[in-house]
Amino acid sequence: MGFSHVKIFRVILLALLLLPSLAMAASDSGVSATLADFTLPHYRKNNLQFVLYGERAVNLGAIITVYNPLIDVVVRDLPDVEVITILKGMKSPDSPKIDNLVPGRLYPLHTDYRLIRDFWRPIPHSQVLISSGSVVYDKNKRTMTGDGVVHYRSRELDIDGEGFDASQEAKFVHVRRNVRVVYRPYAKELKDEAKKLLNEKWNKIKAKNSR
Q1: What's phi and psi for 86, nearest 5 deg?
Q2: CB neighbours of 107 closer than 8 A, spacing ≥ 6?
Q3: What pLDDT digit, counting tens, does each position of 87-137 carry?
Q4: Class of domain 5-209
């Protein structure tokens, strides 16, 4: 479902308001901007595609280098941008095994199903989450590349590896090496639950807005 230009503008404006620090520096190829506490929503044909978060970003022309990024790829049938939960500050996994979810962190590979289900419940808008040490985003080519450790999380499967390439146009993510994958046979159950929760959240928002 598409969004109005007004709502997309509101998301972009929100992103700008979430950038408290901005420093300008001259370089041989132009002027670069260093931004702290980075948030960038990206859309195509009025449809929100993903939100890119980061602790810090350096923007030079069409290239943005984001440090400690989180890429939140939203579901295709997103009813409205108001259903999105802001995930700014979410970090990569920091232990091989957990007994309880760590607030603000992705879960590691081989996490128990109960914890995985608890993780995804509050964010039914999200289809895929990707974290890494850094990522280079080319706004013109709509591609992202990273050379460090990468963590790919979805309801269908989880992947850890080193280095990745992602293309918005081709709609693919390629993890380059040292790949470890966990497939989830009960993914449909998680996806059905997410769809139900997303609709419930949207109905509550519509009811609140109509008052």
Answers
A1: -70, 125
A2: 93, 98, 101, 115, 116, 119, 153
A3: 999 999 988 889 999 999 999 999 999 999 999 999 999 999 999 999 999
A4: mainly beta
